[in-house]
Amino acid sequence: MTMTRTPAADITVELICLPRDMARFDLVTSFFKLRKQIFVDRMAWPLHHAEGIEFEQYDTFDTVYVIAHRDGQAVGGARLKRTDTSFGAGKVVYSYMIRDAHLGLLPGMPTNLCHEDPPVDAGAWELTRFAALPLPGLAESILEAANTHLHAVGASDCLFLGPPAFLRMAARLGWTPRPMGDLVSNDDGKFLAFACAVRGPSAAMTV
Description:
- With 207 residues, the chain is α+β, with helices and mostly antiparallel strands.
- 23% of the residues lie in helices and 29% in strands.
- The chain has a single domain (3-197), classed as Aminopeptidase, CATH 3.40.630.
- The chain has helices spanning 25-42, 97-102, 138-152, 164-172, and strands spanning 3-5, 12-17, 49-50, 53-54, 64-70, 73-82, 124-132, 157-162, 178-179, 184-186, 189-197.
- The protein is globular and about 45 Å long.
- The relative contact order is 0.17.
């Protein structure tokens, strides 16, 4: 478990690597609650939720969560998954969101996200379910912590799925975004799949 500081002195960003960090699953639960507040309550996305939390099939026990919190209350976060993992049995075997959408396994998600088949590679990871309250520097701190972790584990690329503004933010932070396909849309808005080479970590302080 790694912790980093944010521009707000009272907010900490933690890396929760499951199953190793199960003792900190309370933070993951708080992140699920934040996702429900942002994606379901505020943005009205038709996502599965119960008991005040939003979760889905990709929230498995081999996931890395980047969670920003204030005294255990999540204020932002993201989910990281390697692209060479799979889970499920029977007719449907899932891997990661961009690839599964491309393969037509996710009803309601566009299937034309990518011009080519998305990678299945231990060096490529996907970042999804990015959520952050509008606090100065918070989004940047979450993405920086994610990049630092990916660099530490030897990852070469990080894949993103989000609105065009997400790509522009990644570029401002020093990544070199490479669109994987065209801008697409569904009832939830406009999306773009893009990849970024993992950078060397910045001067962010580790505590």
